[in-house]
Amino acid sequence: MTTVNGVGIGQGVAQGPVARMAEPLPAPSDAPSTIGADQERERAHEAVAAVARELEDRGARAGGAAQEVLEAQAMMAEDPSLADEVDARLAAGKTAERAVHEAFATFRDTLAEMGGYLGERAADLDDVAQRIIARLQGVAAPGVPAPGHPFILVARDLAPADTALLDLDQVLALVTSDGGPTSHTAILAREKGIVAVVGAAGAVALADGQTVIVDAATGTVVADPTAADLADAAERARAHAAAASAPITPGALADGTPVPLLANLGKPGDAQAARALGAEGVGLFRTEFLFLSADEAPTVAAQRAEYERLLAGFAGTKVVVRLLDAGADKPLSFLNDSEEENPALGVRGLRALRAHENILRDQLTALAEADAATRERGEGADLWVMAPMVATVEETRYFTALAREHGIRTVGVMVEIPAAALLADRVLAVTDFASIGTNDLTQYTMAADRVLGPVAGFQDPWHPAVLRLVADVGAAGRSLGKPVGICGEAAADPLLALVLVGLGATTLSMAPAALADVRAMLRAHTLDDAKRAAEASLSATDAATARAAAAVASSSPTPA
Which of 34, 78, 439, 457 is 20 to 30 A distant from 208 in Cα terms? Predict the structure, then answer.
């Protein structure tokens, strides 16, 4: 029996035989074309269009976050600049397969170097290229295996197109050797409620057919377990399923301390499903869906209609809306499409909105009008609005004043930059609330790109340096009587959620599928337990020991 360690997603446990993802197709031959550039161009254009339509179809069937990712991949496939690169190579005598391989590889390397949002798309581009080349070669695209029985899927990482339509009757759990807690695989696993362990480097040694236990709660994959291990895992899986199906109650600790559990959403249409899973409101509504596929900024009327749908869907609850988080790392022709050497540190978030204040004012106007309209109809929510990527007290003061000028009643900022966390007492003194985005806060604290494989080990919100910044914000909130929410992926980790409450978080927001596990974890612990686990984590020297210390501290009885 051997154990492989990684990062668990959720609290589930599963067992079964391994089925490995096929390796990528080899690079096509560089032999010159034998049919001529015109025929090769026709082949290439047909394959690109077919793959784009397939990705869109998969997205339409999958819905949710997967649809957004797959539609973005389809747009990548038909990017005019990529088409020009392919055509140039075809004109030089390359085959369609080789031209696609080279052109996409060039773009992939460029995106990877840029980092930020575009850097995250580099692996997606590889997947698109593989699908186009497979179509040109008349072979099946590398993807999820189909052994004919339920299995544990093991891969280096999964492309969005693969995770979007996983057959959950067949895929018992996911194990990846690459990636981390903020990878697409992790995010989609949370959204779908799939048992998963990511970043398990030792998983490359697992063999097809080998029996394993995947334990997300401990972040382990046990290979060749004993009969007793299998029986214990089966019992824990039953207990977890029972807890997940238990009646939904408001988020609270065992001593009655309320901790509202909210949902991270990307579209108004996701509201019904989130409420069905127990979301008590919205802790992060991403407004990018209105902007990223547009050639010009949406009108106030168009925005207002979508915001009204959202507020009506969560009538009577708190809804926290994040303004457009875009800029050079998510180029928009009407906002900022200039090139930057390091867009993650460039003009993004509030910086970009401030440079184009008309877009910022329109968004605030639309939100205020939607709030007033839904309240007048008796279906209003408690609207809170926050600015992304705020670094300074001056930026906080500017945004808060502007939002109030437009009629927004509750105004706050995202704490994603260490500077804002370190000055949290002064930031919160001039606004109503703070919401900590742990994904970017970890990235900037550890100087580690969220999707760059070689530094994935640094991208862990359990690191004591990150937790100390969260503690600073929590302390400022308590001192000033201001709410401090968590809306990054960290809140979906049940044990870390408990620690975050101990550090001062007053609400937790996450993918709706994670709500049940987090609710159960909080119900089993008191505020003293949470504070003790938080103190243990802060005293650690690295992420792994912080997690282990919290696990020990939270399992110990509260001292009399």
Answer: 457
Q: What pLDDT does residue 560 have?
A: 40
State the pTM of this model. 0.74
Domain boundaries 2-22+143-236, CATH class: alpha beta
Give domain 259-415's CATH architecture: Alpha-Beta Barrel (3.20)
User: CATH classification of 37-137 is 3.10.105.10, yes or no?
Assistant: no
Residue 367 corresponds to which amino acid?
L
Higher-scoring residue by pLDDT: 121, 432: 432
Per-residue model confidence as pLDDT tens digits over 243-278: 777 788 999 999 999 999 999 998 999 899 999 999
Q: How far apart are CA 558 and CA 560, in angstroms?
A: 6
Q: What pLDDT shows up at residue 185?
A: 80
Q: DSSP of 385-435, one letter per residue? A: EEESS--SHHHHHHHHHHHHHTT-SEEEEEE-SHHHHHTHHHHHTTSSEEE
Evaluate whether 472 touches 422 at the Cβ level (below 8 Å): yes
Ranges of CATH 1.10.274.10 domains, the chain: 37-137
Report which DSSP code applies to 476.
H
Which is catalytic among the residues 184, 240, 463, 525?
184
In residues, how long is the chain?
A: 560
pLDDT, tens only, 509-560 = 998 988 998 999 999 999 999 999 999 999 999 998 999 999 999 986 554 4
Predicted local distance difference test score (pLDDT) of residue 525: 96
Topology annotation, domain 416-552: TIM Barrel (3.20.20)
Q: How many CA atoms lie within 13 A of 238 on its CB side?
A: 6
Task: Indicate the DSSP class of residue 139.
Answer: S
- Annotated catalytic residue: which of 101, 240, 406, 487? 487
**Structure tokens given for 100:** 């696609």
> Does the active-site annotation cover 240?
no
| Residues carrying CATH 3.50.30.10, the chain | 2-22+143-236
| Contact predicate 435/408, CB 8 Å | no
> How would DSSP label each residue in 232-290?
HHHHHHHHHHHHHTSPP---B-TTS-B--EEEEESSGGGHHHHHHTT--EEEEEE-GGG
Secondary structure letter of residue 332 according to DSSP: B
DSSP for 56-103 reads HHHHHHH-HHHHHHHHHHHHHHT-HHHHHHHHHHHHTT--HHHHHHHH
Active site residue 487: yes
- CA dist 222 and 224 (Å) reads 7
Determine the pLDDT at residue 328. 45
Structure tokens at 250: 């408001």
Do 406 and 365 form a contact (C-beta atoms < 8 A)? yes
User: From CA 287, how far away is CA 370, in angstroms rounded?
Assistant: 14
The contacts of residue 400 (CB under 8 Å, 6+ apart) are 411, 413, 430, 431, 432
Distance CA 335, CA 323 (A): 14
The token duo for 542 is 């690295």
